[in-house]
Amino acid sequence: MKEWKISFVNKDGVLDSMTISAENCPTIEDAAKLVRSKLYPVAAELDDVTLPDKVASPAVKSLKSQHSVEITAITEVA
Predict the structure, then answer these.
(1) Is the dihedral of CA 5, 12, 51, 49 positive or negative?
(2) In 3-state terms, what secondary structure has residue 31?
(3) Of residues 10, 6, 32, 29, the one with CA closest to residue 19
C-alpha cells in the first residue's frame, strides 16, 4: 500500500492535509469524500442529493459550496 497526502484549504482558509493508505491515487471525488468524512462525519453519512441534472463530482462541489473546503493537491508520500 502507498501513502497519499490530500492537501486542502479548510473553512478558515488555512492549508491542511490528511494522509491515507491506498494502492492507487484517489480521484478528486474520492478525496473529497474522505476529507468530508474527517471534517464533517454527520454530513458524510448523508447521501448526495440526486438532482434532475446530474452533477459531476457532487462531493467536491458540496464540500466547496456548503463547507468552503477546497482540495488543492493529492500527492504520494515518499
Answers:
(1) positive
(2) helix
(3) 6
pLDDT tens column, 26-67: 999 999 999 999 998 887 676 555 545 566 778 898 899 989
For residue 12, the number of C-alpha atoms closer than 13 Å in the C-beta half-sphere is 4
**If you search the block for the grid coordinates 457532487, which residue do you land on?**
58
Q: Closest Cα to residue 58, out of 48, 66, 68?
A: 48
Quote the cell numbers at residue 45. Answer: 453519512
CA distance 78 to 68: 29
Q: Which residues are 73's β-sheet partners?
A: 7
Q: Is the pTM here over 0.90, yes or no? A: no
For cell 463547507, what's the residue?
Answer: 67
CA of residue 43 relative to chain centroid, distance: 12
